[in-house]
């Protein structure tokens, strides 16, 4: 069986991106790490795919945006941010929707990079969080930037723009607690997205910091969709003891929850407070308007693309940036 870059990374105990940096003789890697990776390469007799790398190294002025995300507003914001950076720097944008769970996704992406001679790729969740996809791109030495949920990352893991979803969820939950709520439910997004885990962690941290228990009956799995919000809210509303407030994992879920609550005859926020996340147009199109967490997706995408372009030109040593979402208080939350 052919030895892959993923095998080398596991053997050396480092990231795939670090192996790629070592094989490309990049100076940013610590010497101890270089020695460890080279030892693994020799032990496994790893042979980099030089032909593929040569193809990938012949770049055009084109940035690729690949995604698998059902949230239309999120994708539009990403496109606008990437396009803004591309126009500023004289680049074109290639948009490529994908199925991240497809068995052929890795081959599909590597072929696209080779055939289009992309200068770089912008990866959004869940693509940016999939080790198989990252390994395939590193195998051909593709230039890419990841937009992911989190607070920090190892500098050797490549270009990364992080969104501190955990902080945003903690703050919006704290807002509800400050208003007097102690019985708070949570409607989750897709489990394959790291943002779902980070937002749930922030929600739980807020309760813990205030000596409040997490009622697991009120924490429901779901999807990042309006329909999931309707379904989840109906379950919570029909409980014998229901929460007085709901934290939804994004604004579409929150809008669905609001719809279900109003159909059930509840007054929002008098009978039930509902808050969202992302500050998408959904949050301003509902009645009442949603209290939410502002996530500057257009700016996030633009900064990510600027990092990517600068890296392709080797004009920057900056490898990561962190965005911290903050609450936006509107009309869907009040005292219980």
Describe the 3D structure.
- With 336 residues, the protein is of the alpha/beta class.
- Among the domains are: 1-48, lambda repressor-like DNA-binding domains (434 Repressor (Amino-terminal Domain), Orthogonal Bundle), CATH 1.10.260.40; 165-295, Response regulator (Rossmann fold).
- Helix content is 45%, strand content 15%.
- The strands form three sheets. Strands 2-1-3-4-5-11 form a six-stranded parallel sheet. Strands 7-6-8-9 form a four-stranded parallel sheet, with helices on both faces. A two-stranded antiparallel ribbon has the order 10-12.
- Helix 9 links the parallel strand 6 (184-187) and strand 7 (219-220).
- Helix 1 (5-12) packs across helix 2 (16-23).
- Residues 50-57 have low confidence and may be disordered.
Please sum up the structure shown:
By secondary structure, the protein is an alpha/beta fold. Helices cover 45% and strands 15% of the residues.
Topology:
Layout: H1 5-12, H2 16-23, H3 31-44, H4 50-57, E1 62-67, H5 72-89, E2 92-97, H6 105-116, E3 120-123, H7 131-139, E4 144-149, E5 159-163, H8 165-178, E6 184-187, H9 194-209, E7 219-220, H10 226-237, E8 245-248, H11 251-263, E9 273-275, H12 282-285, E10 292-294, H13 297-312, E11 320-323, E12 326-328
Parallel strand pairs: 1-2, 1-3, 3-4, 4-5, 5-11, 6-7, 6-8, 8-9
Antiparallel strand pairs: 10-12
Distance between the termini: 62 Å
What is the fold-level CATH name, i.e. the topology of one domain? Rossmann fold
| Secondary structure tally: strands | 12
Q: What class would the helix/strand composition place it in?
A: alpha/beta
Helix content: 40-55%
How many DSSP helices? Answer: 13
Percentage of residues in DSSP E strands: 5-15%
């Amino acid at each position: 069986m052919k030895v892959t870059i993923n095998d080398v990374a596991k053997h050396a105990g480092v990231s795939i991106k670090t192996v790629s940096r070592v094989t490309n003789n990049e100076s940013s890697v610590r010497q101890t790490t270089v020695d460890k990776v080279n030892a693994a390469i020799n032990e496994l007799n790893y042979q980099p795919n030089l032909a593929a790398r040569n193809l990938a190294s012949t770049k055009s002025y084109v940035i690729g945006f690949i995604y698998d995300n059902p949230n239309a507003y999120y994708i539009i914001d990403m496109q606008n941010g990437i396009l803004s950076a591309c126009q500023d720097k004289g680049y074109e944008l290639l948009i490529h929707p994908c199925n991240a769970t497809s068995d052929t996704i890795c081959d599909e992406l590597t072929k696209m990079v080779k055939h289009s001679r992309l200068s770089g790729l912008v990866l959004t969740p869940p693509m940016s969080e999939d080790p198989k996809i990252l390994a395939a791109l590193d195998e051909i030495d593709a230039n890419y930037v990841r937009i992911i949920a989190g607070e920090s990352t190892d500098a050797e893991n490549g270009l990364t723009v992080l969104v501190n979803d955990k902080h945003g969820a903690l703050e919006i939950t704290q807002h509800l607690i400050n208003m007097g709520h102690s019985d708070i439910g949570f409607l989750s997004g897709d489990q394959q997205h790291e943002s779902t885990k980070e937002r749930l962690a922030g929600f739980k941290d807020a309760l813990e910091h205030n000596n409040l228990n997490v009622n697991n009956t009120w924490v429901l799995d779901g999807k990042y969709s309006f329909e999931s919000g309707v379904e989840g809210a109906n379950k919570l509303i029909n409980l014998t003891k229901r929460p007085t407030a709901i934290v939804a994992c994004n604004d579409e879920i929150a809008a669905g929850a609001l719809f279900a609550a109003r159909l059930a005859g509840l007054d929002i926020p008098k009978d039930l407070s509902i808050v969202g996340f992302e500050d998408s147009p959904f949050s301003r199109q509902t009645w009442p308007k949603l209290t939410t967490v502002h996530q500057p997706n257009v700016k996030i995408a633009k900064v990510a693309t600027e990092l990517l372009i600068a890296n392709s030109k080797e004009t920057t040593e900056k490898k990561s940036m962190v965005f911290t979402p903050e609450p936006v208080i509107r009309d869907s939350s009040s005292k219980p």
